Each structure stands twice: as structure tokens, then as C-alpha cells.
Amino acid sequence: MTHPSRIFSGIKPTGHLTLGNYLGALRRWAREDQYAAESLFCVVDLHALTVEHDPARVRRLSRQAAGLLLAAGLDPEVCTVFVQSHVDEHARLSYLLECVASDGEMRRMIQYKEKSARAQRGGQGVRLSLLTYPVLMAADILAYRATEVPVGEDQAQHVELTRDLAVRFNQRYGHVFAVPKATLPAVAARVMDLQDPATKMGKSHDATAGIVYLLDEPEAVARKVRRAVTDSEPGVSYDREARPGVANLLEILATCTGKEPEVLAASYEGIGALKADTAEAVVELLRPVRERHAEISADPSYVDGVLRAGAARARELARPTVDAAYAAIGLLPPA
Ligand code: ATP
Ligand code: MG
């Protein structure tokens, strides 16, 4: 059985959205993905409960993330925008996939290792859901028979796991799922923290001067970029291993200008000019998103309406697949 191509991706309301989220995910969703196939974009709020959380903040950030998806250019007339917890099929399918996944493969997930270490360092317990979250993510994707999952590089391993689970389920119980693949951006698939170019920029990390948020004031954006940590080598060259701070700036500027990082590197003599141009480019990149977000958030009933319609559409798409999985795995259908 072949399926038409379908796109699914999501974002967790664990913090304010960052430049990394925008370049690795949102911008592509809005510019290309929504027009390429039937597509769904989800605020994956259940995933935000895998680490220490404040209920009121998760609620607030969920609405804000939805508003930012629209501000980034997702058009609810073209694609489906919704909140994960509004559609029961995700959690319903997740349990079945837990019965297909193994304990060992969950413990091998890099993000589990990193985030459980972070939780322990912070003196917090590690929630069981942090271990099982990639299975819920697999359910998010497989419930829609998505064939493509546009994500940043850090999520590639989880999409790989999703493929494995889909193939395993299909082999054991009959063909229910499409086998998806991750699609990564050509540049800036992993935007690094401007103060610590060895660490990915992450919205749940403690706020530092190295994280650019989509809703930062333009002056703050410019300051953060201009103060990025680089190195003491003279001149500008593109080498991710040897010069991660400079490479990060070149990649960010490359996504703003459409030029290759190597070509940009050759056009600069000093880091100062590179920083100044990158700062200006990022400010201009984010300006329309911030402005549209202000308009959209002035009318919460608009966002609520989009999310209500989105959840209805998502339910309609997911239900038959999840029902088919329940039947295939051996559960007696309700009479
Ligand atoms: P958290 O710290 O809670 O994990 P996050 O910033 O990593 O937050 P996610 O919600 O996990 O954001 O991921 C949303 C999307 O943004 C995913 O497609 C992910 O690959 C992408 N993404 C996240 N951080 C970056 C980054 N620094 N560079 C490029 N893409 C990124
Ligand atoms: Mg993440």
C-alpha cells in the first residue's frame, strides 16, 4: 500500500521559542513544507511535561507557541495547526508503540542521556516520561502516516527510532504505518548557543546571553549576536570543528542571505564586520515574525479558533490509523 506524502512536525512548549527553532524548523514549515503536501504542525504539550514544569507556564507557552507558528507564516487555510493534548490518538497510540519498543533502545537516546543528566544536576528526579517520550513522538508522527518530518539535526535520532518502530510494527502485525524520514535544513540544522558554541541553542536551557528568542527586542537580538563568543584566530574561515563560534555565525548569516557559509567566509576580513552584518540580518529576519505575533496575540479567540479546527481535522486523520493499529495488534474491537 502506498500513501500520498504527508508532513508532520511539532514544537514543545518548554520555553520561549528560539532562533534555533526558527531556522531548524518553523521557517521551513512556513516557506516550503505547508505547500508541499498535506501537513500538520503541532504544539506538543505532553512532551513539555517530561521535565520539571509549572502548569500555568506550560499553558501560557502553548498558546504563545501556537501564535508564533501562525506569526511565522503557517496558514491555517493551507495546513493543520493544533495542540497535541487536544487529540487523544497520540497518547492512545503511544501505549501500543511502548509494546513494540525496547527498554534498551530508549536508554540509548542521546537526548535522554543529556536531559536526564541535566535534571539530576538540577537536583530534580528524572521523570519516567523523559525516557518514554521518543515513543510518544513516534506516535505523533505515525498516527498521521506522515512520510516526512522536517526537524533540526538534534531530532534526527528520534525520527530514526520512529522508522524502526514503524517497520517493526508493520512486520509483526501487518502494514499499518507509513515509514517516515527526517528532512533537515541544508544549513543551520543545529544552531549553537552564541555564548557556548559547543552547546545547541535550546529553549529550555537557562536563559543566557547566548540564546536569541523570537520575541526578543531588536536591540537585545543585535547585542546577543554582536557579543557572540568566537575565538582568537585572525580573519574569518568556515570550519565547524576548529572554529565553532565563527561557523555558527556564518551559518546563521547564510540562512538569512541565501549564500553559502564558505562564500560568506571569503567575503569578510574580520569578525567584527561579520558580527555586525549577522546582527542586522537576524534583526530583520525576526522583525516581521515579532510584529505579526503582536497582532495575532491581540485576539486570543482567533488562535483558539484555529486550534479548535486544527484538532478536529487532526482527529479525523489520526483516528482510522490508530484504530487499525489497535485491531492489528490483537485488541478486540468494541462491539
Ligand atoms: P528543548 O530545550 O525543550 O528541547 P528545543 O529548543 O530543543 O527545546 P524542541 O521543541 O525540542 O526545541 O524542538 C522543536 C524543533 O526545533 C525541532 O525540529 C528541533 O530539531 C528544532 N531545533 C531545536 N533547537 C534547534 C537548534 N538549536 N538548531 C536547529 N534546530 C533546532
Ligand atoms: Mg529539543
From TrEMBL:
Top-level taxon: Bacteria
Q: Which UniProt keywords apply?
A: Aminoacyl-tRNA synthetase, ATP-binding, Cytoplasm, Ligase, Nucleotide-binding, Protein biosynthesis
Q: Where is this motif: 'HIGH' region?
A: 13-21
Stored PROSITE patterns: AA_TRNA_LIGASE_I
Reactions catalysed, semicolon-separated, are: tRNA(Trp) + L-tryptophan + ATP = L-tryptophyl-tRNA(Trp) + AMP + diphosphate + H(+)
- Which principal EC class is assigned to this enzyme? ligase
Protein name per UniProt: Tryptophan--tRNA ligase
What cellular component GO annotations does this protein have?
A: cytosol
Residues spanned by motif 'KMSKS' region: 200-204
A GO molecular function annotation here is:
tryptophan-tRNA ligase activity
User: To which protein family does this belong?
Assistant: Belongs to the class-I aminoacyl-tRNA synthetase family.
- BP term (GO), one: tryptophanyl-tRNA aminoacylation
The gene from which this protein is expressed is trpS
Q: Where does ATP bind?
A: K12, P13, T14, G20, N21, G152, E153, D154, V191, K200, M201, G202, K203, S204
Query: What's the source species for this entry?
Result: Actinacidiphila guanduensis
Which CDD domains does the UniProt record give? TrpRS_core
Assembly description: Homodimer.
